[in-house]
Design brief:
This protein is of the alpha+beta class. The strands form 3 sheets. A 7-stranded mixed β-sheet has the order 10-9-13-12-11-14-15, covered by helices on one side. The chain has a 4-stranded mixed β-sheet with strand order 4-1-7-8. A hairpin with a 5-residue loop joins strand 2 and strand 3. Helix 3 packs parallel to helix 5. The longest helix is centred in the middle third of the chain and has 31 residues. The radius of gyration is 24 Å and the shape is globular.
Length: 331
């Protein structure tokens, strides 16, 4: 019996070491209540669940090339850089995955750069909402762009890693520069007549913006494929309920493709979306996208009872300041 027991122990130990050796992504999620950590490609073509044990530890092999993936634990989500040849360890708190995640091991450097860039871009967006001074924002955007280039140059990453990180940095540069342009547009368009549009609702009836003259109008430009848009829906519904007896109309304009109209109608019905639901005539090539200089969604616009623009790039429903602003206007 002893030789057999020894053999079993040897096989078990060997198997455990083999499993550890094959795992290139592992870590600990503290205060965890979920049973798995989901790794998913940004476009959703790859999805893998890694089991979380009772202590919140996980490990697994991710062999999907070099790229930025989304990891999800429960309702929390954060981006992570992964590649076939890394040996990355993360730690985070399940209550705030994005805010608490830390990295160690091979792949930590790439993740730390991406995290710094993302956090600085987020801080830039937050400051832009408060000061909205185009000249100040333009200077800050240039400073961030230069610092990110220097950060990437000093990192001395592999060619493949550098390509991915540089691409993500370029996307953040585009977003902060778009914020600067939006601030400039706000100055240009505030107080000017809002560009008119007429689109069909879920029943096929044509509805025009002009029909709402005499009311404040809060417009949500969105799409069913846009995850951030979908995340705003609960707060938008709550906002509509809070202000239901006030002099304000809510219009949601989808820029889904015409061939996806059935999918749009289903989301409207399934989510019990309120207000006036419209679909633009030709997705990104719609007149509204051009007239309101829409480069990304969700996008929100506020118009006054005279049909003039109050805010060309209004706050999102999830921003607590929006309700305060609307209540002040609707007294």
């Amino acid at each position: 019996m002893k030789p057999i027991l020894a053999l079993l122990l040897l096989v078990t130990t060997t198997a455990m070491h083999a499993q550890d050796a094959s795992a290139n992504f592992k870590g600990e999620i503290k205060n965890n209540k979920a049973d798995s950590l989901i790794v998913q490609s940004m476009r959703g073509k790859f999805r893998k669940a890694l089991a979380l044990d009772k202590t919140g530890h996980f490990q697994g092999l991710i062999q999907q090339g070099v790229g930025v993936f989304s990891i999800q634990v429960g309702q929390q989500e954060t981006p992570v850089f992964l590649s076939n040849d890394i040996n990355l360890t993360i730690t985070a708190d399940a209550a705030d995955l994005y805010g608490t995640i830390t990295f160690s091991g091979d792949g930590a450097k790439e993740n730390q750069i991406l995290r710094q860039v993302q956090q600085e871009a987020d801080a830039f967006s937050e400051s832009a909402e408060k000061q909205n001074n185009p000249e100040v924002l333009k200077v800050r955007a240039a400073q961030l762009s230069e610092s990110w280039d220097a950060l990437l140059k000093e990192a001395n990453l592999s060619f493949a890693s550098q390509t991915v990180v540089r691409t993500m940095c370029s996307q953040q540069k585009f977003l902060i520069n778009s914020t600067v342009e939006s601030a400039e547009d706000k100055l240009t368009f505030t107080g000017k007549p809002a560009p008119q549009f007429s689109y069909k609702d879920v029943k096929g009836k044509t509805v025009s913006l002009s029909a709402f003259k005499g009311k404040y109008v809060y417009i949500d430009v969105w799409a069913t494929w846009c995850k951030p848009c979908m995340m705003e829906i609960p707060d938008l519904l709550a906002l509509q309920k809070t202000l239901k007896d006030k002099n304000i109309a809510f219009i949601s304009v989808s820029i889904d493709k015409p061939e996806d109209a059935a999918k749009w109608k289903k989301v409207v019905a399934d989510k019990h979306l309120g207000g006036t639901q419209l679909i633009a005539e030709n997705a990104w090539d719609s007149s509204m996208v051009r007239d309101y200089k829409i480069e990304s969604v969700p996008r929100f616009i506020l118009i006054d009872p005279q049909g003039k623009i109050v805010d060309f790039d209004a706050k999102r429903p999830s921003n607590e300041e929006l309700l305060k602003e609307l209540k002040a206007l609707l007294r």
